[in-house]
Amino acid sequence: MTEAPSARTAHYGDIGWRIALIVLVIATITLLGGMNARLGLGGALLKPGTLEFEDYIPPDAEREVFRQFSLTGVVTSLSYLIALASGTAFLLLTPLKLRENGWLMMCAILIYLWVPVEAYTMVLDFRLAYLEMFTTEGNAAFRELFLKRAGALAGTPFIAHLCYYTVIVIAILRPFRRPTA
After folding, report:
1. First vs last Cα of the chain: how many Å apart?
2. Number of alpha carbons in the 13 Å side-chain half-sphere of residue 120
3. At 53, phi and psi to the nearest 5?
4. Do residues 66 and 127 lie in contact, with contact meaning Cβ atoms separated by under 8 Å?
5. Cα(64)–Cα(86) distance, rounded to whole angstroms?
6. For the segment 100-137, what is each residue's pLDDT rounded down to a tens digit?
7. CA 149 to chain centre
8. Hey, where are the domains in the chain?
9. Which one, of 149, 98, 97, 101, lies nearest residue 122 by Cα?
């Protein structure tokens, strides 16, 4: 009698972590795509290596870049939240043990390490989206908030971006696995 519930629980747990993994992969693809798009959009506005705006960009084109940057920020922020939730669900439901799979522990550390940074930049992203969707502010307000976002935490969000790619490499190579006996 006691074997049936545990078998049923194992079956449902098996489905749960697999669904969480699928959602995590899809959200991560969306997240990294949005981050790359925003990196390109932001780079188009600024002089290389500085936080100064290019002089040759017309105001209407600049406004369109701000619009795209704002809307992409909403998608990126939502996909980050979904990836974080599904990653947490995966860690809770997976049959893999962190003690035996050092690669999984490294991935979790690299992801959760950047949550405060992402939370701060998400606030700035939602402010940009609010300006875009609910106000008629000019480029000056967008420029101010964009520069605050671009220079946020002295470039730490870019380091987080690089860590997310490192997580992918670690998940593929899976170092620090204990051999099963």
Report:
1. 30
2. 14
3. -75, 145
4. no
5. 33
6. 999 999 999 999 999 999 999 999 999 999 999 999 99
7. 15
8. 3-47+55-173
9. 149
pTM value? 0.88
**pLDDT, tens digit (0-9, with 9 covering 90-100), for 73-106:** 999 999 999 999 999 999 999 999 999 999 999 9
Cα–Cα dist 11/113, whole Å: 32
Residue type, position 108, single letter: A
Distance from chain centroid for Cα 39: 13
Of 42, 29, 3, 37, whose CA–CA distance to 147 is shortest? 42
* Listed residue (63, 70, 39, 43) closest to 54, CA to CA: 43
